[in-house]
Amino acid sequence: MLEWMVWTPPTAAVFAGLALLLAGMAVWARLSPPVARRGFLRIETDRGDRLYIGLISAAAVLTGWIAVTDLSMWLALACALLVALVIGIWG
Amino acid sequence: MTGRGADGISPADAAVAGGQVTGEVLTGDTLAGAAREAPGEHDASRADTRTKDNRAWFLVLPVVVSVAFTAVIPLMTVVNFSVQDIFSPTDRIFVGLDWFRDVARDPEVRAAFLRTLLFSAQVLLLEIPLGVALAVSMPRRGPWASAALVVVALPLLIPWNVVGTIWQIFARGDIGLGGWAVNTIPGVDFNYTLDSTDAWITVLLMDVWHWTPLVALLAYAGLRSIPDPYFQAAQIDGASGWATFRHIQLPRLRGVLTIAILLRFMDSFMIYTEPFVVTGGGPGNATSFLSILLSKIAVGQFDLGPAGAFSLLYFLIVQIVSYVFFTVLTRTGR
């Protein structure tokens, strides 16, 4: 049935991870509601906003990396996750 | 409102009530900003005691389902395409991030990216001031208001490909009125099929002609929602026309201009039909924007993998720019 979607294990893992992340954020919001505050991004953000900004920034890092250098993409992934983490904590 | 305000309600509360009655979005306005803080403090102390019933959110489910069906699932498929070399649903090879690397380093793609960015910047720089100027100079009431509205809205009623066809003929030097006039009256050699600058100008003018009315209508609606007392106060203070515009009209247009800028950026960044009809991306590749290049790869050459990677990078850029615009225009000053 889903043959036309030509799934591969890595992309399935990525989407499953995203779904888990969103579900986790929903549960977390239930346990302790997010509070908006201002970090080094200078705009008022709550947890979900920072997750979105972090994911988009991570994607931008990966794109920039693949566009300019041949270094390993695992290194790029580490950098991207670091960026997302920094934005998530102090953004 | 003024009557109740005189009865001892603080000016801030009166302003809030006034804002609610007129039903406007008061973003960015200093008056509204000052007024909004006062009830916010009231609510914060009350909010915790109230039980919340969020079941109304289930009414959003149909939208979620339809968006999942029309946007999320196709997008997932595009992601799957972008990491494989696909010959048929059963005959496909996983290639990892190769397509992303190819697309991100392709000089043709990079040139098209810069070209599209330049085009969007020019579109915004031309259409936003022009649309606001048009809206300000349109009559506020009377029979001429309706007449002006109809005339301004006319280009919006024309489908994209017809706009393309109109301008394809209009800009021609031999049989088109516009092209002929430019060639004959100032005597400038204008030929959009041969000269890349002329082709660019033609496509840009066409977009300005087609979409400035949208900005004008949005701005006009924003201007109409400004209550008359603002203008009366400005008149009493002896404010000049420019001061009235700068300190009353422009700040109150912030909300609609946010929408106008977002819409015009996204539309011009994704522009496809008009340049496809008028120039087909040429001459050479002077007007081959990202969308034209993408459709050439996806539909023309049927390279689904590179096209998928291309679309995702394209999507990422639109996301980033739209989010930055949105944040800058709605969250600054908070």
From TrEMBL, chain A:
<dbReference type="InterPro" id="IPR018678">
    <property type="entry name" value="DUF2160_TM"/>
</dbReference>
<dbReference type="Pfam" id="PF09928">
    <property type="entry name" value="DUF2160"/>
</dbReference>
<feature type="transmembrane region" description="Helical">
    <location>
        <begin position="51"/>
        <end position="68"/>
    </location>
</feature>
<keyword id="KW-1133">Transmembrane helix</keyword>
<feature type="transmembrane region" description="Helical">
    <location>
        <begin position="12"/>
        <end position="31"/>
    </location>
</feature>
<feature type="transmembrane region" description="Helical">
    <location>
        <begin position="74"/>
        <end position="90"/>
    </location>
</feature>
<keyword id="KW-0472">Membrane</keyword>
<keyword id="KW-0812">Transmembrane</keyword>
<protein>
    <submittedName>
        <fullName>Putative small integral membrane protein</fullName>
    </submittedName>
</protein>
Automatic annotation (TrEMBL), chain B:
<feature type="transmembrane region" description="Helical">
    <location>
        <begin position="56"/>
        <end position="79"/>
    </location>
</feature>
<feature type="transmembrane region" description="Helical">
    <location>
        <begin position="309"/>
        <end position="329"/>
    </location>
</feature>
<feature type="transmembrane region" description="Helical">
    <location>
        <begin position="199"/>
        <end position="223"/>
    </location>
</feature>
<keyword id="KW-0812">Transmembrane</keyword>
<feature type="transmembrane region" description="Helical">
    <location>
        <begin position="112"/>
        <end position="136"/>
    </location>
</feature>
<dbReference type="GO" id="GO:0055085">
    <property type="term" value="P:transmembrane transport"/>
</dbReference>
<feature type="transmembrane region" description="Helical">
    <location>
        <begin position="148"/>
        <end position="170"/>
    </location>
</feature>
<dbReference type="Pfam" id="PF00528">
    <property type="entry name" value="BPD_transp_1"/>
</dbReference>
<dbReference type="GO" id="GO:0005886">
    <property type="term" value="C:plasma membrane"/>
</dbReference>
<protein>
    <submittedName>
        <fullName>Glycerol transport system permease protein</fullName>
    </submittedName>
</protein>
<keyword id="KW-0813">Transport</keyword>
<dbReference type="InterPro" id="IPR000515">
    <property type="entry name" value="MetI-like"/>
</dbReference>
<feature type="transmembrane region" description="Helical">
    <location>
        <begin position="255"/>
        <end position="273"/>
    </location>
</feature>
<feature type="domain" description="ABC transmembrane type-1">
    <location>
        <begin position="113"/>
        <end position="325"/>
    </location>
</feature>
<keyword id="KW-1133">Transmembrane helix</keyword>
<dbReference type="InterPro" id="IPR035906">
    <property type="entry name" value="MetI-like_sf"/>
</dbReference>
<comment type="similarity">
    <text>Belongs to the binding-protein-dependent transport system permease family.</text>
</comment>
<keyword id="KW-0472">Membrane</keyword>
<dbReference type="InterPro" id="IPR052730">
    <property type="entry name" value="Sugar_ABC_transporter"/>
</dbReference>
